Each structure stands twice: as C-alpha cells, then as structure tokens.
Amino acid sequence: MIPWLRNREVEVKDLPSIHSLSFKSLQGKEHSMSEFKGKFILIVNVASKCGFTPQYADLQELHSKFGDKLAIIGFPCNQFANQEPGSAEEIETFCASNYGVSFLMAEKVDVMGDHQHTIYAWLTQKEKNGKDNNSVKWNFQKYLIDPDGRWVDVFYSITKPMSQKILKHLAS
C-alpha cells in the first residue's frame, strides 16, 4: 500500500462520528445524534423572519413522506440579519401554527464563529467530517448525512427541501 494512502485511511477511519455528538431540543431535552443511526439526517439552520422561511412547509412535507428513513433537525439561528430573534417558546409556536412543523427542532445555536455548535463544527470542517470544508452562507442551508453518519452533501438556501438534489439520495 502507498504510505500516504494508508495514513489517509487511518485519518478518515479515526474521525469522530456525527453520532458521537449531541444537542438540546427547543424544549431543553438532550438528544444524541446516535438516536438517528440507520436513517438519513437532514440538518437545517432555520429562521422565522427570512425570505426562505416558507421552506418550513417543504421540510414538513419531506418529513411526512420520508420520516421512516429521514430525520430532519431544524437548528434555529439568529446570526444572519437577526432573522430568528424569538425565544424557544416563540419559535416553537411560530413553526407549529404557521407550518405544522412536527420534525425535531433544536435550541437556538450559532452555526459559525467563536461559539459555533459542535454539530456545525463537524458539518463545516473537513478534519472532522472527512469530506468538505465549507461555511454556512445563510439561513436554510441544508446538510445531508447518510444512515452510517457520513457527510453526504451540503445544499444552499436556494435548494428547496423537495428538490431532486436531495430526493435522489432518499429514493434508494
């Protein structure tokens, strides 16, 4: 085996899994990402006062159609033009009453910067996810994780949740 290739395999194999990370829901309940082993995971940074906010409806539709093989987790974030100023209760009420959201919503987090949530550090840093360095550009950026906890792809805000770019991964 080529020495540099062997070392690369060890690095990828030894990367922390997203399944080793955790987060709190809007209600304050601790969730381990390991709860979602065996399912695709779509992680989305969300906001209530954004031009992309209507994507909540598509996210709910995706959840309704593929909930048996896909976990959707919304991470409210107020880092883009202060478009998620609400409290946990306000966010939950807004999502339920306007879009019928029944998928899991995390507590409000930072998706970049000094206080970046550990899940977003994993999503955006190649040395953690083994796949890609990227940055969160705006609200409703989506990350797809496969059933084994591997980073699949990032989809920017303009990609709608029901897009073929996302659905093609769930069709199998």
Kindly report the CATH topology.
Glutaredoxin
Number of helical segments? 6
- As a percent range, the share of strand residues is 15-25%
Distance between the termini: 33 Å
Mean pLDDT across all residues, rounded? 92
Portion in helices: 25-40%
Which spans of ≥5 residues are poorly predicted at pLDDT below 50?
A: 1-10
**CATH class descriptor:** Alpha Beta
Primary descriptors:
single chain, 172 residues, alpha/beta, Glutaredoxin, 5-stranded mixed sheet, two-stranded antiparallel ribbon, 6 helices, 7 strands, 31% helix, globular, disordered N terminus
List the helices and strands and how they pair.
Elements: H1 3-13, E1 22-24, E2 30-32, E3 40-46, H2 55-66, E4 70-76, H3 88-99, E5 104-105, H4 118-124, H5 126-129, E6 142-145, E7 151-155, H6 164-170
Structural account:
- This protein has six helices and seven strands.
- It is of the alpha/beta class and 172 residues long.
- It has a single domain (17-170), classed as 3-Layer(aba) Sandwich (Glutaredoxin), CATH 3.40.30.10.
- The strands form two sheets. The chain has a five-stranded mixed beta sheet with strand order 5-4-3-6-7, covered by helices on one side. Strands 1-2 form a two-stranded antiparallel ribbon.
- Helix 2 links the parallel strand 3 (40-46) and strand 4 (70-76).
- It is globular.
